[in-house]
Amino acid sequence: MSIETITAPTSAGRRGLLRVGGTGLLSATAVALLAGCERMASTAQAQGGNAANDVQILNVALALEHEAISAYSIAAASGLVTRQVLPVAVAFQSHHKEHRDALVATIQKLGGSAVAAKSDAEVAKALNAGSLKNQTDVLRLAQRLERGAANAYLGVIPSFSDRNLAQVSGKLASDETGHWVILSQALGDPIAPKAFYVG
Amino acid sequence: MSRLIAGAIAASMALAPSLASAADAARGKELWEARCTGCHSLDANRVGPLHKGVFGREAGTAPGFSYSPALKNAGPTWGETTLDKWLAGPSQFVPGSRMGFSVGEATDRGDIIAYLKSVSGR
């Protein structure tokens, strides 16, 4: 697979990529996440409550998703991504938006306040987006962020007080790993020589 | 047989301090890039604070980063021991802090800390 041959499963376009905000409807993932949190809320209450700690972790995850959404918007607006690759970025960004919506809903369900997104300009500066010169640079940045996100979601699993949320964190890590694998293949990176290459 | 096992245990205990002192900053760089860059950069505050200069820095004092009150008021200075405890279990070391990410293996923590020390000019 090369950079030019990766394709998205949908025909979503640039307008969809740049659109900010959700539809107001919860995705299937959010519904599933919330179902887990209903159990968690009652469990935490019965145990004296560790929900505040979980909200802290979920808000860090939300900040990470906000950053990913901005990163793909920045990539799309850079003019460095070809029409063939753009739909892939659209698809990945839509996943991150579903993650965001699910996390916001869960944080609020637990009585917390969801952390706000930084502006694209702030994110671009923090990620040194000005140094990106071509599509490969853009894909390398996305690849690095997706691997970091996968590892972050795996690394917080032991900290959740509720096993349902730990499981959700594993699902989020799997999505990010999927993105990382596709980007790695597109960049022509070799298969990981050893097992346990994530985490 | 029991003497053999006892000897092996004694040998491993004798080896432990040398392993601890032989932290591998190069391996730590790889681990840091794989596990920490989801939230951290060396030179910029992102989801987490910038890491350049973290070794030797007082907790909660990276310029421009908005910390939890818990970490801002915790007061430790980041060194080998404090970073090891932090990475082993942030919420146990500083209750109320935001970071939930932990590094389970002591060797991995040591190598990451060695890398952070190297990029902090220490």
Give your account of this protein's structure.
The complex is a heterodimer of chains A (199) and B (122). Chain A has a domain at 51-186: Ferritin, core subunit, four-helix bundle (Ferritin). Chain A is an all-alpha fold. Chain A has helices at 14-18, 28-46, 51-77, 86-109, 120-126, 135-155, 163-186. Chain A is globular and about 45 Å long. Helix content of chain A is 64%, strand content 0%. Residues 4-20 of chain B have low confidence and may be disordered. Chain B is mainly alpha-helical and 122 residues long. Chain B contains six helices and no strands. Classes of the chains: A mainly alpha (199), B mainly alpha (122). Chains A and B meet through helix 3 and helix 6 of A and helix 2 of B.
Overview features:
heterodimer, A: mainly alpha, Ferritin, B: 122 residues, mainly alpha, Cytochrome Bc1 Complex, Chain D, domain 2, 6 helices, 51% helix, 0% strand
- Bin the strand percentage of chain A: under 5%
CATH architecture assignment of chain B: Orthogonal Bundle
Shape of chain A: globular
Oligomer: heterodimer
Helix content of chain A: 55-70%
Secondary-structure-derived class of chain A: mainly alpha
Number of helices of chain A: 7
Strand elements of chain A, count: 0
Q: What's the structural blueprint in terms of helices and strands?
A:
The complex is a heterodimer of chains A (199) and B (122).
Chain A: H1 14-18, H2 28-46, H3 51-77, H4 86-109, H5 120-126, H6 135-155, H7 163-186
Helix pairs in contact in A: 2-4, 2-7, 3-4, 3-6, 6-7
Chain B: H1 2-21, H2 25-35, H3 69-72, H4 80-88, H5 90-93, H6 106-119
Helix pairs in contact in B: 2-6, 4-6
